[in-house]
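Contributing new records

If you add data, match the layout below exactly. Sequence lines come first and carry their own label; structure lines follow with theirs. Keep one chain per record. Anything else will be rejected by the validation script.
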Amino acid sequence: MKPDFYRIRRLPPYVFAEVNTMKARARAAGQDIIDLGMGNPDMPTPPHIVEKLVETVRDPRTHRYSVSRGIPGLRKAHAAYYQRRFGVDLDPETETIVTLGSKEGLANLAQAITTPGDIILVPNPSYPIHPYGFIMAGASVRHIPVGEGHDFFAALKRAVKHSVPSPLALVLCFPSNPTAQVVGLDFYRECVEFCRHHGIWILSDLAYAEIYFDDTPPPSILQVPGARDIAVEFTSMSKTYSMPGWRVGFAAGNKQLIGALSRIKSYLDYGAFTPIQVAATAALNGDQACVEELRQLYKQRRDVLITGLAQAGWAVPSPPASMFAWAPIPEKFAHLGSLEFSKLLLQHANVAVSPGIGFGEYGDGHVRLALVENAQRIRQAVRSIKAFLNAGDRLPHPPSQLQPDPGSRALAS
């Protein structure tokens, strides 16, 4: 028998696994590792949401199978959120669906709409599920470089011109994971106009819609007139309400895409546990002060991290949104690449970060730092990083000696 399978063969070794293996070994040895790697919110879910879950779970009628596309009340609450936040009116019956997190929604939509050999346009760097959800579905991915020094629309037009067959879909993610880049409605208007002209679906990941630090909230692509003819958008409860383990997300927009996702999900799952969906409904319909509190907490952590790193001699742009800082590797370490630099940070500063290469080749000059430790721990991390940077060439072990256990696997967010 062959040692592995078609979809597994299409997946490269998971870059984050090397750092995660080293992190696990260090913790097993009793080291205090400050983990700024995985985007895993550390704050508890607001009490009123938890209380609604507990109240609902006591009713044995809620213990049965739920509804694959989401209970009606939750779909209505999500549609109400879009009207309230973006001024977009959605039909909760045909233009919204509840997913088991936005990650599951993206992966299942990829399975629903992809024919082997289809071409998908994906920003690079990007969150891994954006390209690999489609790669697992049999598609080919064409990367669109994003970030400083890259013209997104010039690269997009070049990719479409030279793609055979014509691309099926374009994936977008703003505020971006990992780069924290934000865009305005003019960007989305140009995307919609271009993709409508070329018959390309748009899949927008808006998971960080509510984690922003400027006065202007990030927009939705569905605010653009005509966007629903070609676009679907994914949102999530995970970061907005600090509910990552609850696995509640949404897709909204084009009826044909929502219908395809609903059809696939009907074969794969019965939806999230009903009490979780009821609690999520209470979150969306209830007092939103908790969202502002979480936003301000992330902002405080961002300021502590960025200011501290600057004082340590590491100039990192202040992210305008998301829960991440996208940090260029300091010049004297740039030749190492992001993976080896991440290993050095872990070994010599006891700080775990995500190597940028894990988000695509155009991310290799950066590492991603997540705002998932409290301000005191972030200050501790900054002190350790400062000592590491000052040590420079005096470090006792070269990167080549930092060899993790091969073949290890891990998951990142």
